[in-house]
Structure formats: structure tokens, C-alpha cells
Write a structure and sequence with these properties.
It contains ten helices and six strands. The protein is an alpha/beta fold. Helix 1 packs across helix 4.
């Protein structure tokens, strides 16, 4: 086990099972614009770099002129349906309670409003001292500068700070910031991609986190 004083959690695919609702809102957007819908597996591969990149990729090269309409439609639909099937991962609330004496922050490329609304609905916002969303700073993961709001004025050694996430951006963020990386292998990110970036730690289910850090 490794000592950890600051835990930086990703949101989608790490804390919550949100892939299905994201896919539904993307395909609703495409259908509304009379564009072909796409497979959920393809949409999942587009998640992780923020909503603008998600919509750009989903539209494809030939429909970028519909981007602003797509963003508006997606945001409206997702706000209404973001909690249709999304849940906390099993045992995640127990994990957060176990680490109640640790500093914990959510660092996500989801927009702050949606992240905060989701965590409030799950009744777990109380566990986190801060939520850093894609529009909270000028930067998004994996740019280490996204961590500036939480890294300022803290006296915690880098080897006791852990980025926990299911995407390659989380691993790269940790490496860019010089802190510890911990990859969730059963989230939205592809296992083989995560392993290729050689995270410091991996886990198969959230309950394992309490066996990795103290």
C-alpha cells in the first residue's frame, strides 16, 4: 500500500457509469439534425477530451457546419437526461467514506455545471473539497495546469498525490504533473490503451482502491 494525502478523481467512467446517457444524448443530437446515428462503442471512444471534441468527432468531417446547433441540442438534452441511467460505481460511496480524512478533488473534462449537478444528485459532493471542470480553468486534461486551482498553497509531496481515472488523459495528466497515476481498467477507457501508458497502479473495481492507498 502507498500513502496518499490528495486523491484527484476523474468523473465519467471513474466515479459514475455515465457512458450510456452520454451516448443517448449524442445520438439524439444527430437524429435531431437528420444525421446518421452512430454505435455507442464509437461514441465511447470519443469521450474524454471535453464536450466540444465529443461533438466534433460525432458529427464527422462532413457536418462541422452543424457544430453550434449540435452543441445546443446536446446540452439541452443531456441536462434533462444525464441521470437516466447514470449511477455511482458499486462500492464507490464506501471508498469515498473510507478516505474521508483524505483531501479529495474531482478533476474532469466535463463542464463544471454538469459535474456538480451529477455529484449533487448522487449525494457525494460532500466528499470533495473542489470540483474542477472543463470550464473551470483555461486548460483541460491532460494539461497539468488544470491542477493549478488545487495545487496552489498546498504542502503535499508529489509522491503522495494520486490521479485516479479510467482514461489515458488521466495517466498523462499524472505524468505531466509529476504525481502518481492510478488507472481504472473497467471504466470507459480501453484497457489496452490504459496499460500501454504504464500507469503506476491499476484496479479492476473501486473497492480495490482501499487496498492500494492509505
Amino acid at each position: 500500500m502507498r500513502p496518499a494525502d490528495l486523491l484527484l478523481f476523474d468523473l465519467d467512467g471513474t466515479l459514475v457509469t455515465s457512458g450510456g446517457d452520454i451516448c443517448s444524448s449524442v445520438n439524439y443530437t444527430l437524429k435531431t439534425l437528420d444525421l446518421p446515428i452512430i454505435d455507442n462503442d464509437e461514441i465511447i471512444r470519443y469521450i474524454g477530451d471535453g464536450v466540444r471534441r465529443l461533438i466534433e468527432r460525432s458529427l464527422g468531417q462532413g457536418s462541422q457546419d452543424r457544430f453550434e446547433d449540435a452543441m445546443r441540442i446536446f446540452a439541452s438534452h443531456y441536462e434533462e437526461h444525464m441521470l437516466d441511467t447514470t449511477e455511482l460505481y458499486p462500492s464507490m460511496e464506501n471508498v469515498l467514506t473510507h478516505f474521508r480524512n483524505k483531501r479529495k478533488v474531482v478533476v474532469t473534462n466535463k463542464r463544471y455545471y454538469f459535474a456538480h449537478k451529477m455529484l449533487d444528485a448522487m449525494n457525494v459532493s460532500v466528499h470533495f473539497e473542489k470540483i474542477i471542470g472543463a470550464d473551470s480553468t483555461p486548460y483541460i486534461k491532460p494539461d497539468a495546469r488544470i491542477l493549478f486551482p488545487v495545487m496552489e498553497n498546498i504542502d503535499i509531496r508529489a509522491d503522495r498525490i494520486v490521479v485516479i481515472g479510467d482514461g489515458v488523459n488521466d495517466i498523462i495528466l499524472a505524468k505531466n504533473a509529476g504525481v502518481v497515476s492510478c488507472a481504472f481498467l473497467n471504466g470507459l477507457g480501453r484497457r489496452e490503451d490504459l496499460l500501454s501508458f504504464k500507469p503506476d497502479y491499476v484496479y479492476e473495481s473501486p473497492a480495490e482502491l482501499i487496498t492500494l492507498f492509505y
